[in-house]
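User: Show me a protein chain along with its predicted structure.
Assistant: Here is one chain, sequence first, then C-alpha cells.
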Amino acid sequence: MTSTIRPIHVAFALLVAGSSLGAQTAADTLHACYVPSSGTVYRIKATGAPSVCVDAVHIAFSFNAKGPTGATGPVGATGPVGATGAAGGGGTAGATGATGATGVAGATGSTGATGPVGATGAIGATGPAGATGATGPQGPAGSGGGISGHVIVQTQHTVAAGTLMSNGDHDEMEYTVATLKTACPAGKKVIGGGQGLVDYPDLGVHRNTVSMPPSGTQVMTHAELKMLFLLESRPYDTGVEQGWQVIYGNGTLNSEDIKVYAICATGS
C-alpha cells in the first residue's frame, strides 16, 4: 500500500508529553505516527492522510493542538469609565400570583321584624269626560279605479265537418281545426269569456264495413272515435281590439255550431 507521509520535525519527547495534557476535545486532538529510524512524524486520521500507521514499527500517538492553560496574569489597571449604554427594553410582566384563599364567611345577621301592613287608600273620584276632538280634514279623492258598463257579447261560428279519408282497407277521419273569436265593443276591455255548443253533436264511433258474398254478411274492419274537442280558450289583444278566442277541432261527419262569449267592461 502506498501512503503519503508528511514529516513533522518535532522533538518526540515534547510530542509524548503533549499527549498526556489535560482534557481534550475531538476537534483539538491530532493523531500521528513516529518513525524511529528517521526521527520524523507524520499525520494520520486527517483529510488526505492514512487512517493508521503505514508500518508496524512506527509508533502511533495523539496530542492536543492547544497547550495547557497558562498562569493567571496580574490584574491590569482600571480603565476609564465607558459611555452610558442605551436603556434596556422593559422586561416581561411576571406571572400572576396565585389567588389567595377565600376568607371565612361572616355570621348571618338576624332577620328584622316585619313592618305593619299599610291601610288601603280610598278610591278617587272619576274625572270628567274629555271634550270631543275636532273633525279631521276630508281625504283626497280616489284614483277612479274599478270597472263599469260591463256587457256580454256573443258570436256564433260554424266549424266545418271532418273529412273521412280512405286508407287501404280502412277509413281515417281528418279533423278540421278552426280559430273562433268574439271581439269587445270599441273602448271596452275583455275581462272574461267562454264558449258553448249550439247543439250536441253525434259523438260516437265511425264504423267501416264491407260485404262478404255470397252470404252478404257485413263485417266491421275498422272503427274510429268521432270527436269534437276544445284546444284553447283565452283572451286576446291585437293592440286594436280585445276579445275572447277559442280553437276547436271537429272530428265528426257534420259541421258544428259554436258560440263564443266575451265579457267586456270599461275600466281604468
